[in-house]
Design a protein that fits this description.
The protein contains no helices and 14 strands. By secondary structure, the chain is mainly β. The protein has one domain. The strands form four sheets. The protein has a five-stranded antiparallel sheet with strand order 7-8-9-11-10, with no helix packed on it. Strands 3-4-5-6 form a four-stranded antiparallel sheet, with no helix packed on it. Strands 12-13-14 form a three-stranded antiparallel sheet, with no helix packed on it. A hairpin with a 2-residue loop joins strand 8 and strand 9. The chain is globular and about 45 Å long. The relative contact order is 0.17. The mean pLDDT is about 95.
């Protein structure tokens, strides 16, 4: 399935807007079979979490305005500050994201939902769920992050523009 996430424009450093990093998928961190979702950061300062395979039916112009694409259902959108890194899903239904306003950790919860709920999406078996997102932590060392964090052995590891490599966690 092809889709395009339209974002707002913002001037940050030499960037003019859009998504600079990549999209992250929850496929490897979804042992319970909840819905397939993605996460991405944008220069407009938002973290976007949406459905991988469900679109709104609305079409928007894509890169260079050459083609029109479907838009995915956005389940969660939060203004965290501009970012050029890629958010990552990790064990325990967690999401880690870094940007110009620090490093964030989110817990992701799925609740059973009726199919007519506006933010309910189905899993591969057709059971409907609603995503709940809880901010679990924020770390801002006084400078910015541009790199994508890594989670290894329960620790978040990320490089910072201050020249340090930070390791957070037990």
């Amino acid at each position: 399935m092809e889709w395009f996430v339209p974002t707002g424009d913002a001037n940050v450093s030499s960037w003019k807007g859009g998504i600079i990093g990549s999209v992250s998928l929850n496929d490897e961190y979804n042992p319970e079979g909840y819905p397939a979702i993605f996460a991405t950061n944008a220069i407009d300062g938002h973290l976007y979490i949406g459905a991988q395979d469900i679109t709104t039916g609305e079409k928007v112009k894509g890169p260079l305005l050459k083609r029109s694409y479907e838009t995915p259902v956005i389940l969660y959108q939060q203004k965290l500050g501009a970012s050029i890194s890629t958010p990552i899903f990790t064990d325990g239904y967690k999401l880690v994201t870094a940007g110009y306003n620090g490093l964030y950790l989110f817990n992701l919860f799925w609740e059973s939902a009726h199919s007519d709920h506006p933010k309910a999406i189905p899993n591969a078996q057709g059971k409907f769920y609603q995503l709940k997102v809880e901010k679990a932590g924020h770390f801002k060392p006084g400078t910015t992050f541009e790199s994508t964090p890594v989670v290894w052995d329960g620790k978040i590891i990320v490089c910072c523009r201050d020249g340090f490599l930070y390791t957070l966690g037990a």
